[in-house]
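Hi all, posting the design record for the shared folder.

TITLE: backbone redesign
STEP: 1 of 1
STRUCTURE INPUT:
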């Protein structure tokens, strides 16, 4: 067992993180020499907190998990915004696996875990980015979760729309430089003004000068002091603990007023510390330029996917509450609404705008081999941001 109780990639690929009843099922089927080809779909019954949409993420992980197995994997593109059901009330499959059941049943648990958590983080990040609009959103939440998950959290936060991430490995996973300023610890050890000066003196010039200004005194006076002491100050960061913060919207407005009044209009205000999506709009209106968001992203509610067999040996078959049979998933080229039809359907028309649709559930693995290129993290993020322009944000 690993020192920090984490499974290695090799252990996950061997099926050791599965629920035991899948192991027992495979044992029974093999003992009885039962080999049946099935088609299993991944759908979600409902979204957390009554979200109107979610971001599908984690496809690349599932591809890596299943690569080499004698199965075929179908999926909608990673980063697609989707609803649990189409306008006709049919559950939307985001992925489907086809193959002899015993060959992949042990991977249901890790496959679900990967897309459930990845989609949850990406969805929360997308909601926060939608609320922030053109303001900067940074992922600061890795300290709230198991450290082994740091790159996983930051990658999916970035996919969902965050502009930067704080962890070293997380930034490496997306090919970016980690983002961060200075902690309160530096202020306590050196003193506020000395810490600002040392940061400016020692850090390379390509690292933005953003001063933490709420360790000891009033945010307004500290921000003015920092602006006068650091020549190329890009911004100030307010991170007052929630127990002492008062009305942060009023504090931001007051700091913005005082900075502008004294000729520091170019000094930006960044806010961090216990933020969630409903905090962003009023702070942005008050004058905040950027937001460091932690726990609400890293501890985002998961998207509760389930995997269910819908076809056995080519015959439609599903448990109660599920829609049996092989399906096609279509997307309207204009409004991006998703539609589900039986596999035999040749076309689908968008009921909202009457526009043409295109097939969106595509093959990614065939007999365990990758047959469709996987997009880069930046391509996925840009795809998400483009779709966000077409959806509404509601708390």
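Okay, here is what came back for every position:
SEQUENCE:
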């Amino acid at each position: 067992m690993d020192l920090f109780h984490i499974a290695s990639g090799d252990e996950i690929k061997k099926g050791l993180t599965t629920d035991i009843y899948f192991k027992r099922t495979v044992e029974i089927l093999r003992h009885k020499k039962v080999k049946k080809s099935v088609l299993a779909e991944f759908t979600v019954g409902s979204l957390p907190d009554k979200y109107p949409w979610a971001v599908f993420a984690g496809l690349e992980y599932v591809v890596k998990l299943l690569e080499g197995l004698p199965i075929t994997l179908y999926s909608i593109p990673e980063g697609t915004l989707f609803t649990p059901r189409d306008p006709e009330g049919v559950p939307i499959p985001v992925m489907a696996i086809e193959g002899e059941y015993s060959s992949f049943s042990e991977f249901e648990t890790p496959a679900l875990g990967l897309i459930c958590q990845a989609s949850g983080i990406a969805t929360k990040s997308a909601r926060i980015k939608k609320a922030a609009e053109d303001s900067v959103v940074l992922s600061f939440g890795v300290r709230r979760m198991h450290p082994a998950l740091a790159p996983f959290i930051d990658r999916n936060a970035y996919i969902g729309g965050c502009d930067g991430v704080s962890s070293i490995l997380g930034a490496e996973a997306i090919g970016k430089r980690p983002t961060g300023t200075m902690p309160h610890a530096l202020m306590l050890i050196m003193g506020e003004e000395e810490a600002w000066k040392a940061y400016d003196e020692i850090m390379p010039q390509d690292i933005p000068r953003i001063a933490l200004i709420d360790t000891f005194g009033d945010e307004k006076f500290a921000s003015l002091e920092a602006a006068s002491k650091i020549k190329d100050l890009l911004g100030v960061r307010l991170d007052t603990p929630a127990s002492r913060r008062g009305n942060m919207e009023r504090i931001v407005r007051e700091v913005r007023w005082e900075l502008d009044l004294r000729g520091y209009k170019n000094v930006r205000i960044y806010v961090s510390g216990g933020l969630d999506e409903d905090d962003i709009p009023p702070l942005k209106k008050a004058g905040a330029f950027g937001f460091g968001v932690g726990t609400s992203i890293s501890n985002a509610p998961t998207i509760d996917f389930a995997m269910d067999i819908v076809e056995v040996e080519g015959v439609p078959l599903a448990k109660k509450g599920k829609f049996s049979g092989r399906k096609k998933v279509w997307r309207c080229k204009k409004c991006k609404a998703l539609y589900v039809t039986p596999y035999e359907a040749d076309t689908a028309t968008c009921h909202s705008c009457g526009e043409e649709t295109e097939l969106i559930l595509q093959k990614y693995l065939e007999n365990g081999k990758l047959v469709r290129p996987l997009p880069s993290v930046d391509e996925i993020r840009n795809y998400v941001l483009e779709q966000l322009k077409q959806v509404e944000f509601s708390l």
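COMMENT: The domain at 133-298 is CATH 3.20.20.70 (TIM Barrel).
Let me know if anyone wants the other runs.
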